[in-house]
Design brief:
Layout (H helix, E strand, L loop, with lengths): L1 E2 L12 E2 L6 E2 L1 H15 L1 H8 L28 H11 L3 E2 L1 H6 L2 H4 L4 H6 L2 E2 L3 E3 L7 E2 L2 H13 L7 E5 L5 H14 L13 H10 L9 H6 L2 E5 L3 H4 L1 H12 L3 E5 L5 H4 E3 L4 H5 L3 E2 L3 E3 L6 H18 L7 H7 E2 L1 H9 L3 H8 L3 H13 L3 E5 L1 H4 L4 H14 L9 E4 L6 H6 L8 H11 L11 H9 L5 E5 L3 H4 L3 H10 L2 E6 L12 E6 L7 E3 L2 E3 L1 E4 L4 E5 L13 H13 L7 H6 L1 H11 L6 H4 L6 E2 L3 H5 L9 E2 L15 E6 L4 E2 L2 E2 L9 E2 L4 E4 L1 H6 L7 E6 L7 E10 L6 E5 L24 E7 L4
Parallel strand pairs: 1-32, 3-11, 4-5, 8-17, 9-10, 9-15, 10-13, 14-25, 15-16, 17-18, 18-19, 26-33, 30-32
Antiparallel strand pairs: 2-29, 6-7, 6-19, 11-12, 20-21, 22-23, 23-24, 26-34, 27-28, 30-33, 31-32, 31-34
Helix pairs in contact: 1-2, 1-3, 2-3, 7-27, 8-27, 9-21, 15-18, 15-19, 15-21, 24-26
Bound molecules: ligand MGD (2 copies) and molybdenum atom.
């Protein structure tokens, strides 16, 4: 197995490298975002569109899920939000004529970057069996094609309904309703590859699989630990919140193998001082940890807290909270007391002094928030790692109190809302009961496939129709060659999309592209102009209303696509009023209000400026809807990746110029990389041990239990201050190296932050 830069692609991957930066945002960010935006949209459209982002009368930024503050700036977006908007509001178009010029056999040789740069999709397109060209197809015919294939299946469970995280609450609710009325819980989603580990760990320990803090809590915290997250690139608006917390006296610890620019220093582009001056230094303590060392770190920290309390009983732990609200303390404490310094130092690569400094800061802080993202969720032992973070917070009563709590920072702008709406392959019985009661059909109870199992099912011939509501399944999923081969075995693959991507050109026997409206666009239906709603990373629900004319007159909204598809597939027997739902999304919201807890009076409350907060038992009243009715301490064995001699651990991560598989440009400004993506960041000593000078080229070769050789060819070596033994390279170019069955225990999330590799230097540079 091997990947190479696609041959014949006009995009040249020729990275140039300078020293990494130590501060994020500021003037260069403003200039960079405006350049990218005007290139795609022109000056006037750029101004009109960007001023509507995240305003109370505007649309929700399609970038990340970070919440909007109450007092919004006129420009409540960031450099990367501007790029996400420009990518969608671009004036470039992919027309039927484009597909006439480019057969699929040509498009499969193009890079993802090139495909995305072609512009917005404009008409439904159909690839017939054996054909090499997509042809335009009327919407009604497209729905018939899907309906024919779905009805021909031996069982509804041979169909897969994937969702990416930009889908609105209304579209998501309708989509899961359709899948369940059709008869399957096969609703894999991008969460399976993202924060599933957080959901698993938090549901078990706190009873709610979501974060427990609001922005206000960050502002009030004494200590904020940011572990396994790069907010300067992926959640830039979080830096403003950290800056504000800092001004209020908070200290910040970052735990990361890489010194990430945004966490070091932040130049707030919304303040004159930030634009021109030196900005705010954010991190007070940087713990440069080994990949996968976090569980060991928190376990030892917990032992040290227990011992500090032994020395001065009742001054360190919140015994009243532990007694009243938690379960499993004794067993946990015994496990924590067994934590070993030497093992922790081996697992984390940290020095004793680092951990002691962290302990001092924790002891000085009354209220603590822990934030995390993919650095904690994409390891084999991610679920126990996050449970250990929960143990740490429970010890001092740092849950359900102002200024304290868990803060998993979500990725896609509505990924949290999609889950709330029932996009889940393992739905709770209570949710299915509510659906059954409201609509009067019997939803399937058997659990469905998640992403990894969906790929296995296609590979093994157990699933035959793949339908995607957004996303880029082929490129986002692990083990690219296996995933592509699996997709090619499907009878039919269908993508509801805004932009062209690789999943449209690596297809089943037949394929459809269904073009849809984006967030920035007006959504006109029979019942008048519609808006949709989203839920951010902190459980705030609000409206999103686009202002631009649609990219093409042929586009349908996501809710309209689901409703028409459902009518084509289910026919008059359906018990759901799909036509009414399509005409008027208020009707959908009325049903959501009756099915999903916390949405009472949805239509009224979501019309209030800024929307409303969903209830959260642990946060609001220290009620923990777990199996024990309490917050659960847990005591799992400590794990960390073992790496054979001469091998490295590779994490696959994001550059500054990408949104997941969407590539905006070839630079990673803060890390000093320009003009290319096939780079591998190596500690200079690790590079030297392989005789690799900075600028040399190497193949990355995966090593996994199955003995299959996974190879990503031709990466430029960058000497970089990463932790010894830990390498980094961009996703999705390196997904070919992530074995399909290398996943997190319990959550089954691909372990894309701990891939064992060896380096094979290439002779020619
Ligand atoms: N501009 C932009 N914004 C985005 C996205 C995007 O691609 N582009 N993607 C969105 C999505 S879907 C998501 S999920 C989020 C992702 O947001 P992040 O999680 O910030 O994304 P990654 O680039 O995967 O970065 C992982 C970070 O964790 C660190 N890390 C890796 N392994 C470990 C570890 O074992 N321990 C610790 N302590 N740290 C580790 C890495 O060095 C890196 O800083 O961003 C969202 N926002
Ligand atoms: N190796 C490795 N793999 C990873 C990760 C990693 O860190 N390392 N991260 C994982 C994570 S956290 C995630 S979330 C997944 C992301 O997986 P996905 O969500 O599947 O991927 P995206 O790249 O975000 O999807 C981009 C496509 O979505 C479509 N799109 C954009 N906006 C809209 C819209 O409004 N409606 C519709 N219908 N379509 C739209 C466009 O056609 C675009 O090409 O990748 C995962 N894969
Ligand atoms: Mo994500």
């Amino acid at each position: 197995m091997a990947t190479k830069p696609p041959a014949g692609d006009p995009v040249q991957d020729a990275p140039e490298v300078t020293a990494p930066q130590h501060a994020a945002a500021g003037l260069p960010a403003v200039g960079h975002s405006l350049r990218i935006a005007t290139r795609q949209m022109g000056v006037k459209r750029t101004a009109l569109t960007l001023l509507k982002v995240n305003q109370k009368d505007g649309f929700d930024c399609p970038g990340c899920a970070w919440p909007e503050p109450d007092h919004r700036h006129r420009a409540e977006f960031c450099e990367n939000g501007a790029k996400a908007v420009a990518e969608e509001a671009t004036l470039r178009r992919v027309t039927p004529d484009f597909f006439a010029r480019h057969p699929v056999s040509d498009l499969t040789r193009r890079s993802g970057y090139w495909l995305g740069q072609q512009g917005r999709l404009t008409q439904p397109m159909y690839l017939a069996e054996g054909a090499d060209h997509y042809e335009p197809v009327p919407w009604e015919r497209a729905f018939e094609i899907v309906a024919d294939e779905l009805r021909a299946l031996d069982s509804p469970d041979e169909a897969l309904f994937y969702t990416s995280g930009r889908t609105s609450n209304e579209a998501a609710f309708l989509y899961q309703l359709f899948a369940r009325e059709f008869g399957t819980n096969n609703l894999p989603d991008c969460s399976n590859m993202c924060h599933e580990s957080s959901g698993s760990a938090l549901t078990e320990t706190l009873g709610v699989g979501k974060g427990s803090v609001l922005l206000e809590d960050l502002y009030r915290a004494d200590l904020i630990i940011v572990a396994g997250q790069n907010p300067g690139t992926n959640h830039p608006r979080m830096l403003s919140a950290l800056e504000k917390a800092k001004a209020g006296g908070a200290r910040i610890v970052s735990v990361n193998p890489l010194p990430e620019a945004g966490l070091e220093r932040f130049k707030n582009p919304q303040t004159p001082k930030g634009l021109a001056g030196g900005g705010t230094s954010l991190t007070d303590l940087f713990l440069q940890i080994r990949l996968g060392g976090d569980q060991a770190l928190f376990r030892l920290l917990n032992r040290l807290l227990l011992e500090a309390d032994d020395r001065a009983p009742g001054t360190v732990l919140d015994t009243a909270f532990i007694d009243e609200h938690t379960h499993g303390y004794e067993e946990f404490a015994a496990a924590a007391r067994a934590a070993d310094w030497d093992e922790t130092i081996r697992a984390t690569g940290l020095e004793r002094g680092d951990i002691e400094r962290l302990l001092t800061m924790v002891l000085q802080a009354r209220s603590v928030v822990v934030c995390w993202a993919m650095g904690l969720t994409q390891h084999k032992h991610s679920v126990p790692t996050i449970r250990e973070v929960v143990n740490f917070l429970l010890l001092r009563g740092n849950v359900g109190r102002p200024g304290a709590g868990v803060c998993p920072v979500r990725g896609h702008s509505n990924v949290q809302g999609d889950r709330t709406m029932g996009i889940f392959e393992r739905p709770a019985d209570a949710f299915l009961d509510a659906l059954e009661k409201e609509f009067g059909f019997t939803p399937p109870r058997e659990h469905g496939y998640d992403v990894v199992r969906a790929i296995e099912a296609m590979r093994d011939g157990d699933a035959k129709v793949f339908f995607a509501m957004g996303g880029n399944f082929v490129s986002a999923s692990p083990d690219t060659d296996v995933t592509e081969a699996a997709m090619r075995r499907a009878r039919l693959t269908v993508h509801v999309s805004t932009k062209l991507n690789r999943s449209h050109v690596v297809t089943g026997a037949r394929a459809l592209i269904l073009p849809t409206l984006g967030r920035t666009e007006k959504d006109h239906q029979a019942g008048g102009e519609q808006f949709v709603t989203v839920e951010d990373s902190m459980g705030m629900v609000h409206a999103s209303r686009g202002g631009l004319d649609p990219a093409s007159p042929h586009l349908l909204s996501e809710p309209a696509i689901v409703c028409r598809l459902a009518r084509a597939v289910l026919g008059p027997e359906s018990v759901v009023p799909w036509e009414e739902f399509e005409a008027d999304y208020d009707q959908v919201r009325d049903r959501i209000a009756r099915v999903v807890p916390g949405f009472d009076d949805f239509n009224t409350r979501v019309r209030a400026p800024g929307g409303f907060a969903l209830p959260h038992g642990p946060r609001d009243s220290r009620t923990f809807p777990t199996a024990t009715g309490k917050a659960n301490f847990t005591a799992a064995p400590v794990e960390y990746p073992e790496v054979p001699e001469g091998r490295l651990l590779l994490q696959t991560l994001r550059s500054h110029d990408q949104y997941n598989t969407t590539i905006y440009g070839l630079d990673d400004r803060y890390r000093g990389v320009k003009g290319g993506r096939r780079v591998v960041l190596l500690h200079p000593d690790d590079a030297a041990a392989h005789g690799l000078a900075d600028g040399a080229y190497t193949d990355l070769v995966g090593e996994w239990a199955d003995g299959v050789e996974r190879r990503a060819e031709g990466f430029r070596v960058v000497h970089y201050p990463t932790t010894r033994g830990c390498a980094a390279a961009y996703y999705p170019e390196t997904n070919v190296l992530v074995p399909l069955d290398h996943t997190a225990d319990t959550s089954n999330t691909p372990a894309s932050k701990s891939v064992v590799i060896r380096l094979e230097p290439t002779r020619e540079a």
